Amino acid sequence: MSDLKKADKKSYRFRLIKTGIFLSGLSVFAQLYLFQPLLPLVSEYFNTGAGNSSLLVSSSTIGMATGLFFFAFKADAYSRKKLMVFSLISSALLTFISTWIPNLEVLIGIGFLKGFLVSGVSAVALAYLTEEVEISSVALAISMYLSGNTIGGMSGRISTTILAGEYGWKIAVMIIGSVSLILGLTFWKIFPSSRFFHPQRTDYSLKIKQMRKFLSDPFLLSLFCIAALIMGTFVSIYNYLSFRLEAPPFSLSHYFIALIFLMYIFGVFGTMLTSYLSKYYEKRNILKYFIVIMFASLFLFYSQNIFLLIFGLALFTLSFFSAHTMASQMVAIRAKYGKSSATSIYWLFYYFGSSILGSGTGYLLHVTSWNIFISSLASILFIAFLLAGKFLIFSKKTS
Predict the structure, then answer these.
(1) CA dihedral 133, 2, 188, 111 (to 10 degrees)
(2) 3-state secondary structure at position 133
(3) Can you tell me the distance from the alpha carbon of 316 to that of 54, in angstroms, rounded to the nearest whole number?
(4) Contact 182, 55 (CB under 8 A)
(5) In this structure, what are the phi and psi dihedrals at residue 197, rounded to the nearest 5 degrees?
(6) For residues 209-223, b (16+ Cβ closer than 10 Å) or e, as one string?
(7) Following CA atoms 286, 290, 292, 295 in sequence, which dihedral angle do they give, to the nearest 10 degrees?
(8) Could you tell me the CA-to-CA distances from 140 to 4, 177, 305, 319, 383 in Å, in that order?
(9) Judging by beta carbons within 10 Å of its beta carbon (0-12, 13-18, 19+), is residue 354 exposed, middle or buried?
(10) Cα dist from 205 to 9, 201, 212, 339, whole Å
(11) Residue 47: what are its φ and ψ, rounded to 5°?
């Protein structure tokens, strides 16, 4: 009977799960946004415009969204661990070989495929944790995974910028691919196989029925929409803040602007803070309050004082990751059956929010002003707050 016991935070198995899930998040997000700080160098190398080179980033996120839709139907047919191992190792190999691709169009295609592959991790990671970890320790395990996502996204951007400055963009990509491969192999070695999940043949009619049920549940649907809205707002700030900082009255150097990605460290604090608060407060209220803090922090972006703006960015980043951690945790717990489908839908909304709002607000900024841009983001967050307050109240049971 002891073999069937779920992992609790005092067990060796839980330590392996916690470490492995952190490494998986680190690898996925170091690779997913790898080319974002390299776009000027890639554009120059391929003698193309910024728009074409930016497809290296958007192709990966579109691939991620496509993969999440696919795995919403197929994830339960594969071993949780084997799927994550395959995703981590195959994507790392694609990143590694990207340095030998002489054609931008092919490189963009590889980016799409890589995004599709890494989605295999996101599609089942939260489901694995809720299946294998004792309920009292799930929040801590999820926070470790999302911390890996955060640090991976931050370190991938910063390290590639530094490495590319020293050795060129190809060597930078090769190094990130090599490190990601090592992370994937380490994950394969240490991560425990599932005890409470057995692969099953996909019943497409059942999957469609589950997805319809999830999308017709006001509680889950509101969480999906909240994920899209807060992620779109978050990406918009990090995409276009550099334009604000380059212009008067700041007129900052590109080197200093690159350091804004260090603010991602506050995201790690946010995931940890959520894990702590969830022990004492209702999950719905925690989510609602962090959305309010995101909303309030946006007002600091109107300021022309660099210190106030940086403080606003730190607060905004912390509150975003706190809200995201709580929302994803609530989805995983709410979905008693078909967890992988529910979490895949969550990530699907999340990345579509990133793509649609992240691009749409950029066009708005181009034709209007920074203040109108910030006001539009505040309006988006206000809608997220209304969803958290109005629709989540229909369910009294959040855990």
Answers:
(1) -30
(2) strand
(3) 25
(4) no
(5) -130, 140
(6) ebbeebeebebbbbb
(7) -160
(8) 21, 28, 37, 17, 29
(9) buried
(10) 38, 12, 11, 16
(11) 55, 55
Cα dihedral: 21, 210, 220, 85 (round 10): 10
Spell out the alpha helix ranges (H) of the chain: 12-32, 39-45, 50-53, 55-74, 80-97, 104-132, 135-167, 169-190, 204-216, 218-246, 254-258, 265-277, 283-297, 306-334, 339-367, 370-390
Q: Measured between alpha carbons, how far is 26 from 355 in angstroms, rounded to an integer? A: 21
Bond preceding residue 248 cis, omega within 30 of 0: no
What is the spatial distance between Cα 64 and Cα 122, in angstroms, rounded to a whole number? 9
CA distance 361 to 293: 21
> What are the pLDDT tens digits along the chain (399 aa)?
445 788 877 889 889 998 998 899 889 988 888 887 776 677 778 887 645 666 777 788 888 888 888 887 777 778 888 999 999 999 999 999 988 888 888 998 999 999 999 988 888 888 888 888 888 788 888 888 877 887 888 888 788 877 887 888 899 899 999 999 999 999 999 999 888 877 777 677 777 887 888 888 888 999 999 999 999 899 888 877 877 887 888 888 766 776 777 887 888 788 788 878 887 888 888 999 999 999 999 999 999 999 999 999 999 999 999 999 899 888 888 887 777 678 778 888 988 888 778 777 877 887 889 999 999 999 999 999 999 887 555 554 444
Query: What is the b/e burial string over 280-307, where b = at least 16 CB atoms within 10 angstroms of the residue's CB?
Result: eeebbebbbbbbbbbbebbebbeeeeee
Question: Which residue's structure tokens are 């690898």?
Answer: 27
Q: Hey, what are 387's tokens?
A: 């969803």
Helix (H, G, I), strand (E, B) or coil at 7: strand
Q: Is 338 left (phi over 0), alpha (psi -120 to 50) or beta?
A: left
DSSP string, 219-269: HHHHHHHHHHHHHHHHHHHHHHHHHHHHSTTT---HHHHHGGGGGGHHHHH
